[in-house]
Amino acid sequence: MANFFSDNKDLQFHLGHPLMRRIVELKERGFAEKDLYDYAPQDFEDAMDSYRRVLEITGEVCGETIAPNAEEVDHEGPRVENDHVVYARGTAENLKAIVDAGLGGMTLPRKYDGLNFPLVCFVMANEMVARADAGFENIWGLQDCAETLNEFASEEIKQFFLPWVSAGATCAMDLTEPDAGSDLGAVMLKATWDEERGTWLLNGVKRFITNGDGDVSLVLARTEEGTSDARGLSMLVHDKRDGGVKVRRIENKLGIKGSPTCELVFTNAPARLVGDRKMGLIKYVMSLMNAARLGIGAQSVGLCEAAYREALKYAHEREQFGKPIIRFAAISEMLSNMKAKLHGARALLYETTRFVEIYKQYTHISHERPLEAEERQEMKFYNRLADGFTPLVKLFSSEYANQLAYDAIQIHGGSGFMKDYPCERLYRDARIMNIYEGTSQLQVVAAINAVTKGTFLEQIRRYEAETYAEPVQPVVAKLRELTERFVQMNARVEELDKVQPGYKEFHARRLVETAGHIIIPYLLARQAGEEAEYVRSAQIYCKLAEARIAEAYTYLMHSEPSDTELFRQVEQEYL
Fold first, then answer.
1. What is the pLDDT of residue 562?
2. Is 418 helix (H, G, I), strand (E, B) or coil?
3. Measured in whole angstroms, how far is the alpha carbon of residue 552 from the centre of its chain?
4. Which of 437, 466, 481, 530 is catalytic?
5. CB 175 within 8 A of CB 168
6. Which is more confidently placed, 44 or 530?
7. φ and ψ of 319, to 5 deg
8. How many other C-beta atoms lie within 10 A of the C-beta of residue 571?
9. Reported pTM
10. CB-hemisphere CA count at 13 Å for 242?
11. Cα–Cα distance between 513 and 450 in angstroms, integer?
12. How far is CA 325 from the centre of its chain?
């Protein structure tokens, strides 16, 4: 029987990370609910046992139901009937299996019928679901919209919506519009207060909405008359049962075809205000987007896992010239690199998740009581790390999903181009991951401050100061050299940006990726211990990182301020 948790010792390693004790302590508030709910843990060991049991159930559902349905769902896809989405047969079966297993509301408090699990467990579940079917992860994973309600909505709204999500209600983020993609400040869907009905009414169009016909939708809308920027936007929540929203069409996409991407028409659709007016984009969407970046990170790592396993299996089975192709150096090198990137992306994903988790828990605690001075400092520390690492993990994991899916097809040769093997679907599914929820280019924009303000370097120095096992000492020594190169690159950019404004922007991706290429092998070296598999991944990734940093270093250190003008000239070519 396939189980996507028990067959993955890497997931089990990250579940057992030392920071989990601190995370559980914060999440359970000292196990205050152990006498209130029969499923609340009594202590740390009891909590960890619960997490493992539920993750094993999730792994079984993924291996036994979602993965076998993936090809059929990709072929059938959802459709529109009577202005609403009808899921593919396999998708409906997946949802039933997930609900029957009690996997709704994983992170929500128990008073809303949730499991009150840490974010780490939810991200692991997302990764396993994505390994089974990346398109279905978009539907199930959007339950993290409920976390935004839990953090910012009134108690009345939380009592109404959150138990429904825990029971299996699907969710959606209705943000983008035909003329407002990444530029969400340009959103124009109107929300007007109807005094007679005592509700907000939504009118307008949303486009490219993942699972757009979800039961619970968070909608970014313009509540302030006469405004045209972010200050006029608020967040509202819409209940599908109230009507007023029609699905105009489902987009015909390259990949993730089981996930309905909808164009929606709102006509006097009732909605309730979440939090404060005018804070929709400035505060609440930023929270949503950070969660979405982690979600895409998990989705990307899950697809990396699937692509690597498909490639490895085929390389063992396919024979050429009298031997399995895995015995050819060109193939074994590809697979070794794929595995190192997979391990690296996953290490970065769960390191980031731990940072976000601790920061978020202190945010919730601050709503219950004033934080102590030491707690405020810890919250500030992890908030800073979360802000820098979240775009970094989205950047690296989504790019690696594309690379591993590409390499999986290459290892399959001509067969990989056919629909006879899953790698063809994985390749199509991967392509969106470095585009939606902020393109790779926008992740660089979000992460560059963590370079220039020293967040990444400070954390690299902390990794540098840790103790490492003997087998990875050469890796650590090389990373110290690469860090000094990173320092030189950053200093040069800071100096020349004063001479030529825009110089830092021009080299931003080189700086951000250099930071990531140092951080990831440190994480792998820390994970390695004496275990040969992770030692190899740390060694291989370090070699890949050294090559990439050498390229970026040479380019940047020989680049002059005037170089930025060479690339701006392309703007004039078609004018």
1. 85
2. coil
3. 26
4. 437
5. no
6. 44
7. -110, 140
8. 8
9. 0.96
10. 17
11. 12
12. 34
Residue 452: other Cβ atoms inside 10 A: 16
566 pLDDT band (50/70/90 cuts)? confident
| Whether residue 462 is found in the same domain as residue 562 | yes
Regarding whether 188 and 141 lie in a shared domain, the answer is no
Q: Do the beta carbons of residue 482 and residue 544 sit within 8 Å?
A: no
**Angle (deg, nearest 10), helices 329-368 and 286-317:** 150
177 catalytic? Reply is no
Q: Does residue 133 share a domain with residue 8?
A: yes
The answer to whether 319 touches 413, Cβ cutoff 8 Å, is: no
Domain end residue (candidates: 434, 451, 475) = 434
Residue type, 220: L
CB atoms within 10 A of CB 45: 10
- Among 276, 301, 334, the domain boundary falls at 276
d(CA 570, CA 575) in angstroms, rounded, equals 10
CATH of the domain at 537: 1.20.120.470
In this structure, the strands spanning 323-324 and 199-210 are unpaired
Alpha-carbon gap, residue 480 to 542, rounded angstroms: 11
Full domain range(s) for residue 249: 171-276
Half-sphere exposure of 143 (CA within 13 A, CB side): 29
Tell me if 356 sits within 8 A of 346, measured CB to CB: no
Residue 380 DSSP label: H
Number of domains in the chain: 4
> Is residue 246 included in any domain, yes or no?
yes
pLDDT greater than 80 at residue 575: no
What is the enclosing helix (H) or strand (E) of 320? strand 319-320
